[in-house]
Design a protein that fits this description.
54 residues; alpha+beta; two-stranded antiparallel sheet
Length: 54
Amino acid sequence: MPIHDSVNWVPIGVVYLTSNRLKPFWAGLDTEDYEQLETLLRNTFAEVLKYAPI
């Protein structure tokens, strides 16, 4: 899941979600909850990026 893009839309932050279940938990989320999950992941990455030596 790309969570942060550069100026040219090249992903510079990626979160890889994985599950051992046949149907991962995010597959059962409704649209609003899934969008909230994506937002949470993007915000988390933005906070971590503050400390990266880029």
